[in-house]
Amino acid sequence: MEEWRFLELEFPANPAVNLAIDEAILNAVLEGSVPPTFRLWRNDRSVIVGRFQRIRDEVDLDLCMREGISVVRRISGGGAVYQDLGNLNYTIVLTDGHRLVKGLGVIESYRVLCSWLQEMLKLMGLNPEFKPPGNILVNGKKISGSAQLRRRGGILHHGTLLVNADLSLMKKVLK
């Protein structure tokens, strides 16, 4: 049986630290000092912006300032995401030579690395649909999105699942 590391490690009040932990996990997996890792965590009210996005184009910064909502850039691509304690975030870090993703293209690796969440949702009686590159929909509505960073032979795949998030605030904060 293959060894994996499971971490339930979070600093909800500090989204920048949570994202830095993801990068540290990637570096540790690449160094070979830890096995492939699966992590669950949450952020308090924050907007996490993709690596290549222009923050002002994606986020109502004035509202974030008034409401005390953190705005943090992540190292992976993808779109801006509003998070609060009603979101469950996950991180999967492994090498690109790992049996789960070896030889797969980007979209297929997303499909594989999102499949655990789809299976969990099926067990809950839902009918999740994978929508490339890394989204999961239920009844046509997006409930999960994910992003990846590929660096030096490693893959950092992280995503979020809307559980009980403040959707009205999310709609106001994200442009």
Biggest β-sheet, characterized?
A: 7 strands, mixed
Which structural class should the secondary elements be placed in? alpha+beta
* Basic shape: globular
* Spatial arrangement of strands, main beta sheet: 1-2-6-10-9-8-7
Summarize the structure in words.
- The chain is of the alpha+beta class.
- The protein contains five helices and ten strands.
- The strands form two sheets. The protein has a seven-stranded mixed β-sheet, sandwiched between helices.
How would you sum up this structure in a few lines?
The protein is an alpha+beta fold and 175 residues long. 30% of the residues lie in helices and 33% in strands. It has five helices and ten strands.
Could you name the key traits of this structure?
7-stranded mixed sheet; alpha+beta; 5 helices; 10 strands; 175 residues
List the SSEs and their pairings:
Elements: E1 5-8, H1 15-31, E2 37-41, E3 46-49, H2 55-58, H3 61-67, E4 70-73, E5 81-83, E6 87-95, H4 106-123, E7 128-131, E8 135-138, E9 141-151, E10 154-162, H5 167-173
Parallel strand pairs: 1-2, 3-4
Antiparallel strand pairs: 2-6, 3-5, 6-10, 7-8, 8-9, 9-10
